[in-house]
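Hello support,

Our group uses your service weekly, and this is the first time we've seen a run hang past the timeout. The protein is GMC family oxidoreductase N-terminal domain-containing protein. I'm not sure whether the cause is the sequence or the server load. Input pasted verbatim:
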Amino acid sequence: MTAYDYVIVGGGTAGCVLAARLTEDENVTVAVIEGGPSDVGDEKILALRNWINLLETEYDYDYPTVEQPRGNSHIRHSRAKVLGGCSSHNTLISFKPLPQDFDDWGHGWTWDALGPYYDKVQLNIIPVEEKDRNPIAKDFVAATRKAVDVPEIDDFNARPFEDGVGFFSIAYHPEKNNQRSSASTAYLHPILGSRRNLTLLLDTWAGRIEFDGNRAIGVHTDKGYVEADKEVLLCAGAIDTPRLMMLSGIGDAEHLSGIGIEPKHDLPGVGENLLDHPESVIVWETTKPLPENSVMDSDAGLFIRRDESDPRPDLMFHFYQIPFTTNTERLGYPKVEHGVCMTPNIPRPHSKGRLWLKSSDPAEKPALDFGYFTNPDGYDEQTLVDGFKIARKIAEQEPLKSWLKREIAPGPDVTSDEALSEYGRRAAHTVYHPAGTCAIGSVVDGDLKVIGLEGLRVVDASVFPTMPTVNPMVTVLMIGERAADLIKEA
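Update from on-call engineer: The timeout came from a worker crash unrelated to the input. Re-ran successfully.
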Protein backbone atom coordinates (compact mmCIF):
# COMPACT_ATOMS: atom_id res chain seq x y z
CA MET A 1 0.00 0.00 0.00
CA THR A 2 1.21 3.45 -0.92
CA ALA A 3 -0.37 6.72 0.23
CA TYR A 4 -0.60 10.01 -1.62
CA ASP A 5 -2.36 13.27 -0.87
CA TYR A 6 -4.45 13.01 -4.03
CA VAL A 7 -5.28 9.97 -6.13
CA ILE A 8 -6.46 10.84 -9.64
CA VAL A 9 -8.38 8.11 -11.45
CA GLY A 10 -7.86 8.66 -15.16
CA GLY A 11 -4.82 10.22 -16.81
CA GLY A 12 -6.94 11.83 -19.50
CA THR A 13 -7.78 15.37 -20.53
CA ALA A 14 -8.73 16.70 -17.09
CA GLY A 15 -6.55 14.29 -15.14
CA CYS A 16 -3.39 15.63 -16.78
CA VAL A 17 -4.35 19.19 -15.87
CA LEU A 18 -4.97 18.27 -12.22
CA ALA A 19 -1.76 16.26 -11.97
CA ALA A 20 0.33 19.13 -13.29
CA ARG A 21 -1.36 21.88 -11.29
CA LEU A 22 -1.54 20.08 -7.94
CA THR A 23 2.12 19.03 -8.06
CA GLU A 24 3.23 22.63 -8.56
CA ASP A 25 3.35 22.53 -4.75
CA GLU A 26 6.35 20.31 -4.02
CA ASN A 27 4.82 19.36 -0.67
CA VAL A 28 1.78 17.77 -2.34
CA THR A 29 1.96 14.17 -3.56
CA VAL A 30 -0.20 12.92 -6.43
CA ALA A 31 -0.74 9.52 -8.02
CA VAL A 32 -2.44 9.12 -11.38
CA ILE A 33 -4.12 5.78 -12.09
CA GLU A 34 -4.30 5.32 -15.87
CA GLY A 35 -5.63 2.18 -17.54
CA GLY A 36 -3.48 2.58 -20.63
CA PRO A 37 0.20 3.03 -21.48
CA SER A 38 2.28 6.19 -21.78
CA ASP A 39 2.16 8.17 -25.01
CA VAL A 40 5.79 9.31 -24.67
CA GLY A 41 7.61 8.49 -27.91
CA ASP A 42 4.63 6.63 -29.36
CA GLU A 43 4.26 7.98 -32.89
CA LYS A 44 1.00 6.09 -33.39
CA ILE A 45 -0.42 8.44 -30.76
CA LEU A 46 1.64 11.58 -31.32
CA ALA A 47 1.04 11.76 -35.10
CA LEU A 48 -2.27 13.60 -35.15
CA ARG A 49 -3.37 12.46 -38.59
CA ASN A 50 -3.24 8.83 -37.41
CA TRP A 51 -6.27 9.37 -35.15
CA ILE A 52 -8.67 7.35 -37.29
CA ASN A 53 -6.36 4.31 -37.10
CA LEU A 54 -6.60 4.30 -33.29
CA LEU A 55 -10.31 3.43 -33.29
CA GLU A 56 -11.10 -0.10 -32.10
CA THR A 57 -7.45 -0.84 -31.29
CA GLU A 58 -5.55 -1.58 -28.07
CA TYR A 59 -5.78 2.15 -27.32
CA ASP A 60 -9.59 2.12 -27.33
CA TYR A 61 -12.05 0.88 -24.68
CA ASP A 62 -14.55 0.65 -27.58
CA TYR A 63 -18.00 0.78 -25.95
CA PRO A 64 -21.09 -0.41 -27.87
CA THR A 65 -24.55 1.08 -27.57
CA VAL A 66 -27.77 -0.73 -26.80
CA GLU A 67 -30.47 -0.97 -29.45
CA GLN A 68 -31.44 2.47 -30.77
CA PRO A 69 -34.94 2.15 -32.24
CA ARG A 70 -34.79 5.58 -33.87
CA GLY A 71 -31.05 5.75 -34.53
CA ASN A 72 -28.03 3.64 -35.42
CA SER A 73 -27.56 0.69 -33.07
CA HIS A 74 -24.08 -0.10 -34.43
CA ILE A 75 -22.27 2.96 -33.07
CA ARG A 76 -19.05 2.20 -31.19
CA HIS A 77 -18.07 4.84 -28.65
CA SER A 78 -14.33 5.26 -28.65
CA ARG A 79 -12.81 6.05 -25.24
CA ALA A 80 -9.06 6.37 -25.13
CA LYS A 81 -6.87 3.93 -23.22
CA VAL A 82 -3.63 5.90 -23.11
CA LEU A 83 -2.03 8.74 -21.17
CA GLY A 84 -3.71 11.96 -22.27
CA GLY A 85 -7.04 10.22 -22.68
CA CYS A 86 -9.17 11.37 -25.56
CA SER A 87 -6.85 14.32 -26.20
CA SER A 88 -4.34 11.63 -27.28
CA HIS A 89 -6.95 9.94 -29.45
CA ASN A 90 -9.21 12.58 -31.03
CA THR A 91 -8.83 15.17 -33.79
CA LEU A 92 -7.95 17.97 -31.32
CA ILE A 93 -10.44 20.42 -32.82
CA SER A 94 -10.33 23.09 -30.12
CA PHE A 95 -13.09 25.60 -29.45
CA LYS A 96 -13.31 28.14 -26.69
CA PRO A 97 -16.86 27.50 -25.45
CA LEU A 98 -19.60 30.05 -26.06
CA PRO A 99 -20.60 32.09 -22.99
CA GLN A 100 -24.33 31.34 -23.22
CA ASP A 101 -23.63 27.61 -22.92
CA PHE A 102 -23.25 28.09 -19.17
CA ASP A 103 -26.39 30.13 -18.52
CA ASP A 104 -28.23 27.08 -17.18
CA TRP A 105 -25.40 25.35 -15.30
CA GLY A 106 -25.89 27.15 -11.99
CA HIS A 107 -24.04 26.35 -8.75
CA GLY A 108 -21.39 28.97 -9.47
CA TRP A 109 -20.52 27.70 -12.95
CA THR A 110 -21.12 30.95 -14.79
CA TRP A 111 -19.13 32.15 -17.77
CA ASP A 112 -17.66 34.88 -15.58
CA ALA A 113 -16.29 32.20 -13.25
CA LEU A 114 -15.08 29.73 -15.90
CA GLY A 115 -14.20 31.92 -18.89
CA PRO A 116 -10.88 33.31 -17.58
CA TYR A 117 -9.47 29.78 -17.37
CA TYR A 118 -9.27 29.58 -21.15
CA ASP A 119 -6.13 31.70 -20.94
CA LYS A 120 -4.51 29.09 -18.66
CA VAL A 121 -4.97 26.20 -21.09
CA GLN A 122 -1.49 25.10 -22.16
CA LEU A 123 -2.25 23.32 -25.43
CA ASN A 124 -0.87 24.92 -28.60
CA ILE A 125 -4.24 25.87 -30.13
CA ILE A 126 -3.88 27.58 -33.51
CA PRO A 127 -5.88 27.89 -36.76
CA VAL A 128 -4.83 25.35 -39.38
CA GLU A 129 -1.60 26.55 -40.95
CA GLU A 130 -1.50 27.49 -44.62
CA LYS A 131 0.69 24.50 -45.56
CA ASP A 132 -2.02 22.17 -44.23
CA ARG A 133 -4.98 23.81 -45.98
CA ASN A 134 -6.09 21.32 -48.58
CA PRO A 135 -7.33 22.92 -51.83
CA ILE A 136 -10.71 21.17 -51.66
CA ALA A 137 -11.21 22.38 -48.11
CA LYS A 138 -10.43 25.91 -49.26
CA ASP A 139 -12.98 25.53 -52.03
CA PHE A 140 -15.53 24.20 -49.52
CA VAL A 141 -15.06 27.39 -47.50
CA ALA A 142 -15.42 29.60 -50.58
CA ALA A 143 -18.49 27.73 -51.86
CA THR A 144 -20.14 27.82 -48.45
CA ARG A 145 -19.73 31.58 -48.13
CA LYS A 146 -21.64 32.05 -51.37
CA ALA A 147 -24.21 29.29 -50.90
CA VAL A 148 -25.45 30.14 -47.41
CA ASP A 149 -24.18 33.71 -46.93
CA VAL A 150 -22.14 33.27 -43.77
CA PRO A 151 -18.87 35.02 -42.96
CA GLU A 152 -15.50 33.34 -43.24
CA ILE A 153 -13.97 33.10 -39.77
CA ASP A 154 -10.19 33.27 -39.48
CA ASP A 155 -10.07 32.16 -35.86
CA PHE A 156 -13.14 30.62 -34.21
CA ASN A 157 -11.59 31.31 -30.80
CA ALA A 158 -11.02 35.03 -31.27
CA ARG A 159 -14.55 35.96 -30.17
CA PRO A 160 -18.00 34.36 -29.76
CA PHE A 161 -19.64 33.69 -33.13
CA GLU A 162 -23.21 33.26 -34.34
CA ASP A 163 -22.38 31.45 -37.58
CA GLY A 164 -19.53 31.15 -40.02
CA VAL A 165 -17.31 28.91 -42.09
CA GLY A 166 -13.58 28.40 -41.99
CA PHE A 167 -10.66 26.29 -40.97
CA PHE A 168 -10.81 25.06 -37.40
CA SER A 169 -8.38 25.84 -34.63
CA ILE A 170 -6.50 22.67 -33.74
CA ALA A 171 -4.11 21.80 -30.92
CA TYR A 172 -1.02 20.71 -32.82
CA HIS A 173 2.60 21.53 -33.60
CA PRO A 174 3.12 22.30 -37.31
CA GLU A 175 6.86 22.71 -36.66
CA LYS A 176 7.02 19.16 -35.22
CA ASN A 177 5.62 17.34 -38.24
CA ASN A 178 2.04 18.05 -37.07
CA GLN A 179 2.36 16.26 -33.77
CA ARG A 180 -0.41 16.46 -31.20
CA SER A 181 -0.54 19.13 -28.54
CA SER A 182 -2.55 17.00 -26.14
CA ALA A 183 -3.21 17.28 -22.42
CA SER A 184 -0.36 14.86 -21.79
CA THR A 185 2.18 16.49 -24.12
CA ALA A 186 1.30 19.98 -22.87
CA TYR A 187 0.88 19.36 -19.14
CA LEU A 188 2.82 16.21 -18.26
CA HIS A 189 5.67 15.67 -20.73
CA PRO A 190 7.52 18.83 -19.61
CA ILE A 191 7.51 17.71 -15.96
CA LEU A 192 7.99 13.96 -16.21
CA GLY A 193 11.12 13.01 -14.32
CA SER A 194 11.48 16.38 -12.63
CA ARG A 195 8.62 16.24 -10.12
CA ARG A 196 9.25 13.51 -7.60
CA ASN A 197 5.86 14.24 -6.02
CA LEU A 198 4.07 12.90 -9.15
CA THR A 199 3.59 9.16 -9.66
CA LEU A 200 2.04 7.68 -12.80
CA LEU A 201 0.51 4.26 -12.32
CA LEU A 202 0.13 3.23 -15.97
CA ASP A 203 -1.60 0.14 -17.35
CA THR A 204 -3.50 0.05 -14.06
CA TRP A 205 -7.26 -0.53 -13.82
CA ALA A 206 -9.30 1.08 -11.04
CA GLY A 207 -12.03 -1.26 -9.84
CA ARG A 208 -13.47 0.16 -6.62
CA ILE A 209 -13.28 3.19 -4.35
CA GLU A 210 -12.60 2.48 -0.69
CA PHE A 211 -14.48 4.39 2.04
CA ASP A 212 -14.12 5.03 5.73
CA GLY A 213 -17.69 5.90 6.63
CA ASN A 214 -18.70 8.53 4.08
CA ARG A 215 -15.14 9.55 3.21
CA ALA A 216 -13.30 8.21 0.17
CA ILE A 217 -9.87 7.08 1.33
CA GLY A 218 -8.40 5.18 -1.60
CA VAL A 219 -8.81 3.12 -4.74
CA HIS A 220 -8.50 -0.63 -5.29
CA THR A 221 -6.79 -1.46 -8.59
CA ASP A 222 -5.74 -4.63 -10.37
CA LYS A 223 -2.23 -3.96 -9.08
CA GLY A 224 -3.00 -3.15 -5.46
CA TYR A 225 -4.54 -0.55 -3.21
CA VAL A 226 -3.70 3.17 -3.51
CA GLU A 227 -4.50 5.33 -0.50
CA ALA A 228 -5.61 8.97 -0.69
CA ASP A 229 -4.92 11.06 2.41
CA LYS A 230 -6.89 14.06 1.13
CA GLU A 231 -9.11 13.28 -1.88
CA VAL A 232 -9.91 10.84 -4.63
CA LEU A 233 -10.41 12.73 -7.90
CA LEU A 234 -12.41 10.95 -10.59
CA CYS A 235 -11.31 11.96 -14.10
CA ALA A 236 -12.16 8.79 -16.01
CA GLY A 237 -14.72 10.38 -18.33
CA ALA A 238 -18.47 10.31 -18.73
CA ILE A 239 -18.59 6.52 -19.09
CA ASP A 240 -15.95 5.20 -16.72
CA THR A 241 -16.43 7.70 -13.90
CA PRO A 242 -20.08 6.71 -13.24
CA ARG A 243 -19.15 3.08 -13.92
CA LEU A 244 -16.52 3.18 -11.14
CA MET A 245 -18.92 4.97 -8.81
CA MET A 246 -21.60 2.34 -9.34
CA LEU A 247 -19.10 -0.50 -8.89
CA SER A 248 -18.24 1.20 -5.58
CA GLY A 249 -21.89 1.30 -4.47
CA ILE A 250 -22.65 4.91 -5.42
CA GLY A 251 -25.76 5.32 -7.54
CA ASP A 252 -29.36 4.27 -7.65
CA ALA A 253 -29.66 1.90 -4.69
CA GLU A 254 -32.42 -0.19 -6.24
CA HIS A 255 -30.45 -0.75 -9.43
CA LEU A 256 -27.26 -1.61 -7.56
CA SER A 257 -29.00 -4.06 -5.23
CA GLY A 258 -30.60 -5.73 -8.22
CA ILE A 259 -27.22 -6.62 -9.72
CA GLY A 260 -25.58 -7.72 -6.49
CA ILE A 261 -23.74 -4.56 -5.48
CA GLU A 262 -24.24 -3.38 -1.91
CA PRO A 263 -25.37 0.26 -2.04
CA LYS A 264 -22.98 2.58 -0.27
CA HIS A 265 -24.67 5.86 -1.11
CA ASP A 266 -28.04 6.23 -2.83
CA LEU A 267 -27.48 8.81 -5.59
CA PRO A 268 -29.90 8.17 -8.47
CA GLY A 269 -28.37 10.76 -10.80
CA VAL A 270 -25.25 8.67 -11.41
CA GLY A 271 -25.36 7.48 -15.02
CA GLU A 272 -28.38 9.61 -15.94
CA ASN A 273 -28.37 12.61 -18.32
CA LEU A 274 -26.11 10.91 -20.88
CA LEU A 275 -25.38 13.51 -23.56
CA ASP A 276 -23.63 13.46 -26.93
CA HIS A 277 -23.24 15.38 -30.18
CA PRO A 278 -24.79 13.10 -32.83
CA GLU A 279 -24.19 13.73 -36.50
CA SER A 280 -24.99 12.13 -39.82
CA VAL A 281 -23.19 12.10 -43.15
CA ILE A 282 -23.64 12.96 -46.81
CA VAL A 283 -20.97 11.51 -49.10
CA TRP A 284 -19.70 12.49 -52.54
CA GLU A 285 -17.27 10.75 -54.82
CA THR A 286 -14.73 13.20 -56.21
CA THR A 287 -13.63 13.47 -59.82
CA LYS A 288 -10.04 12.72 -58.89
CA PRO A 289 -7.83 11.90 -55.93
CA LEU A 290 -7.35 14.80 -53.54
CA PRO A 291 -4.09 16.53 -52.68
CA GLU A 292 -2.38 14.98 -49.68
CA ASN A 293 -1.87 17.93 -47.35
CA SER A 294 -4.04 18.08 -44.22
CA VAL A 295 -3.79 18.17 -40.45
CA MET A 296 -6.28 15.40 -39.68
CA ASP A 297 -8.63 15.15 -42.72
CA SER A 298 -11.44 17.20 -41.18
CA ASP A 299 -9.83 20.60 -40.99
CA ALA A 300 -12.69 22.93 -41.91
CA GLY A 301 -16.32 23.32 -40.99
CA LEU A 302 -19.46 25.39 -40.90
CA PHE A 303 -21.82 26.75 -38.25
CA ILE A 304 -25.37 27.84 -39.07
CA ARG A 305 -27.80 29.75 -36.84
CA ARG A 306 -31.39 28.86 -37.70
CA ASP A 307 -32.97 30.24 -34.51
CA GLU A 308 -32.41 33.98 -34.56
CA SER A 309 -33.64 34.34 -30.97
CA ASP A 310 -30.43 32.67 -29.76
CA PRO A 311 -26.97 34.13 -30.44
CA ARG A 312 -25.43 30.67 -30.80
CA PRO A 313 -25.34 28.46 -33.91
CA ASP A 314 -27.60 25.41 -33.84
CA LEU A 315 -26.27 23.38 -36.78
CA MET A 316 -22.66 22.40 -37.39
CA PHE A 317 -20.80 20.63 -40.20
CA HIS A 318 -17.44 18.95 -40.30
CA PHE A 319 -16.02 18.78 -43.83
CA TYR A 320 -14.16 15.49 -44.25
CA GLN A 321 -11.50 15.23 -46.94
CA ILE A 322 -11.92 11.45 -46.87
CA PRO A 323 -14.96 9.29 -47.70
CA PHE A 324 -16.20 8.43 -44.21
CA THR A 325 -18.43 5.49 -45.16
CA THR A 326 -18.38 3.31 -42.02
CA ASN A 327 -22.12 3.63 -41.55
CA THR A 328 -23.28 4.08 -45.13
CA GLU A 329 -21.66 0.83 -46.29
CA ARG A 330 -23.73 -1.02 -43.71
CA LEU A 331 -26.83 0.44 -45.36
CA GLY A 332 -25.78 -0.86 -48.76
CA TYR A 333 -24.12 2.22 -50.21
CA PRO A 334 -20.87 1.70 -52.12
CA LYS A 335 -17.41 2.47 -50.85
CA VAL A 336 -15.47 4.91 -53.02
CA GLU A 337 -11.73 5.26 -53.46
CA HIS A 338 -11.67 9.03 -53.15
CA GLY A 339 -14.39 11.32 -51.88
CA VAL A 340 -15.51 13.89 -49.34
CA CYS A 341 -18.26 14.20 -46.74
CA MET A 342 -20.24 16.81 -44.92
CA THR A 343 -21.51 15.76 -41.52
CA PRO A 344 -24.51 17.73 -40.19
CA ASN A 345 -24.10 17.82 -36.43
CA ILE A 346 -26.55 18.72 -33.65
CA PRO A 347 -24.81 21.18 -31.28
CA ARG A 348 -27.46 21.15 -28.53
CA PRO A 349 -29.55 18.00 -28.98
CA HIS A 350 -32.86 17.62 -27.18
CA SER A 351 -32.59 13.85 -26.75
CA LYS A 352 -30.61 12.34 -23.91
CA GLY A 353 -30.02 8.90 -22.45
CA ARG A 354 -28.49 7.00 -19.56
CA LEU A 355 -25.94 4.31 -18.74
CA TRP A 356 -26.10 1.48 -16.24
CA LEU A 357 -24.24 -1.62 -15.16
CA LYS A 358 -25.36 -5.00 -16.48
CA SER A 359 -23.79 -6.88 -13.58
CA SER A 360 -21.41 -6.55 -10.65
CA ASP A 361 -18.55 -7.87 -12.80
CA PRO A 362 -16.11 -4.96 -13.17
CA ALA A 363 -14.84 -6.41 -16.44
CA GLU A 364 -18.25 -6.24 -18.12
CA LYS A 365 -18.83 -3.11 -20.17
CA PRO A 366 -21.74 -0.92 -19.08
CA ALA A 367 -24.91 -0.51 -21.12
CA LEU A 368 -25.03 2.80 -22.99
CA ASP A 369 -28.37 4.12 -24.20
CA PHE A 370 -27.94 7.57 -25.71
CA GLY A 371 -31.61 7.76 -26.64
CA TYR A 372 -30.72 9.14 -30.04
CA PHE A 373 -33.64 10.96 -31.73
CA THR A 374 -36.11 9.98 -29.00
CA ASN A 375 -37.18 13.45 -27.89
CA PRO A 376 -40.83 13.79 -29.00
CA ASP A 377 -40.38 17.29 -30.43
CA GLY A 378 -38.42 15.90 -33.41
CA TYR A 379 -35.82 18.67 -33.11
CA ASP A 380 -32.77 16.46 -33.52
CA GLU A 381 -33.86 14.72 -36.69
CA GLN A 382 -35.11 17.99 -38.20
CA THR A 383 -31.64 19.42 -37.62
CA LEU A 384 -30.18 16.62 -39.75
CA VAL A 385 -32.78 17.15 -42.48
CA ASP A 386 -32.01 20.86 -42.61
CA GLY A 387 -28.34 19.99 -42.69
CA PHE A 388 -28.66 17.71 -45.70
CA LYS A 389 -30.49 20.41 -47.66
CA ILE A 390 -27.83 22.99 -46.83
CA ALA A 391 -25.03 20.55 -47.71
CA ARG A 392 -26.54 19.99 -51.15
CA LYS A 393 -26.75 23.74 -51.74
CA ILE A 394 -23.06 24.03 -50.93
CA ALA A 395 -22.19 21.10 -53.22
CA GLU A 396 -23.93 22.85 -56.13
CA GLN A 397 -21.82 25.97 -55.69
CA GLU A 398 -18.48 26.57 -57.35
CA PRO A 399 -15.61 26.20 -56.73
CA LEU A 400 -16.56 23.02 -54.84
CA LYS A 401 -18.96 21.70 -57.49
CA SER A 402 -16.21 20.93 -59.99
CA TRP A 403 -14.54 18.56 -57.55
CA LEU A 404 -17.64 16.40 -57.10
CA LYS A 405 -18.51 13.52 -59.45
CA ARG A 406 -21.69 12.21 -57.79
CA GLU A 407 -23.51 12.03 -54.49
CA ILE A 408 -23.04 8.54 -53.08
CA ALA A 409 -25.17 8.66 -49.92
CA PRO A 410 -28.02 9.18 -49.43
CA GLY A 411 -28.14 9.79 -53.20
CA PRO A 412 -29.90 12.52 -55.20
CA ASP A 413 -33.20 10.60 -55.32
CA VAL A 414 -33.63 10.86 -51.53
CA THR A 415 -35.34 14.22 -51.22
CA SER A 416 -38.38 14.16 -48.94
CA ASP A 417 -38.06 15.16 -45.31
CA GLU A 418 -39.26 11.72 -44.26
CA ALA A 419 -36.70 9.89 -46.41
CA LEU A 420 -33.87 12.21 -45.37
CA SER A 421 -34.79 11.71 -41.72
CA GLU A 422 -34.89 7.93 -42.08
CA TYR A 423 -31.52 7.84 -43.83
CA GLY A 424 -29.98 10.44 -41.53
CA ARG A 425 -30.90 8.58 -38.37
CA ARG A 426 -29.77 5.18 -39.69
CA ALA A 427 -26.45 6.59 -40.93
CA ALA A 428 -25.94 8.67 -37.81
CA HIS A 429 -22.71 8.58 -35.91
CA THR A 430 -21.16 10.07 -32.82
CA VAL A 431 -18.47 12.72 -32.58
CA TYR A 432 -17.30 10.85 -29.46
CA HIS A 433 -18.52 13.47 -26.99
CA PRO A 434 -20.28 11.56 -24.19
CA ALA A 435 -20.98 13.82 -21.22
CA GLY A 436 -23.38 14.64 -18.42
CA THR A 437 -23.58 11.43 -16.38
CA CYS A 438 -22.48 12.97 -13.04
CA ALA A 439 -24.02 16.37 -13.58
CA ILE A 440 -23.47 19.44 -11.45
CA GLY A 441 -26.55 19.84 -9.26
CA SER A 442 -27.61 16.21 -9.27
CA VAL A 443 -24.43 14.21 -8.57
CA VAL A 444 -21.81 16.84 -7.70
CA ASP A 445 -22.10 20.25 -6.08
CA GLY A 446 -20.61 23.55 -7.23
CA ASP A 447 -17.17 22.50 -6.00
CA LEU A 448 -17.49 19.24 -7.96
CA LYS A 449 -17.68 17.24 -4.72
CA VAL A 450 -19.95 14.20 -4.85
CA ILE A 451 -23.10 15.17 -2.99
CA GLY A 452 -23.38 13.46 0.39
CA LEU A 453 -19.83 12.11 0.46
CA GLU A 454 -16.46 13.46 1.54
CA GLY A 455 -13.06 13.26 -0.11
CA LEU A 456 -14.50 12.50 -3.57
CA ARG A 457 -14.74 14.84 -6.55
CA VAL A 458 -15.51 14.42 -10.22
CA VAL A 459 -13.53 16.44 -12.78
CA ASP A 460 -14.36 15.52 -16.36
CA ALA A 461 -17.13 15.87 -18.96
CA SER A 462 -19.54 13.85 -16.84
CA VAL A 463 -20.19 16.98 -14.73
CA PHE A 464 -21.81 18.84 -17.69
CA PRO A 465 -25.48 19.55 -16.88
CA THR A 466 -26.02 20.47 -20.56
CA MET A 467 -23.95 20.02 -23.69
CA PRO A 468 -21.81 22.93 -24.89
CA THR A 469 -22.50 23.98 -28.47
CA VAL A 470 -18.95 23.27 -29.64
CA ASN A 471 -16.52 20.36 -29.35
CA PRO A 472 -16.10 20.00 -25.58
CA MET A 473 -12.40 19.19 -25.07
CA VAL A 474 -11.37 22.75 -24.23
CA THR A 475 -14.31 23.04 -21.83
CA VAL A 476 -12.97 19.96 -20.02
CA LEU A 477 -9.50 21.50 -19.85
CA MET A 478 -10.97 24.70 -18.39
CA ILE A 479 -12.95 22.70 -15.83
CA GLY A 480 -9.72 20.94 -14.89
CA GLU A 481 -7.96 24.27 -14.43
CA ARG A 482 -10.75 25.67 -12.27
CA ALA A 483 -11.04 22.45 -10.28
CA ALA A 484 -7.34 22.64 -9.45
CA ASP A 485 -7.93 26.05 -7.91
CA LEU A 486 -10.99 24.81 -6.00
CA ILE A 487 -8.96 21.92 -4.59
CA LYS A 488 -6.05 24.15 -3.61
CA GLU A 489 -8.43 26.54 -1.85
CA ALA A 490 -10.18 23.77 0.12
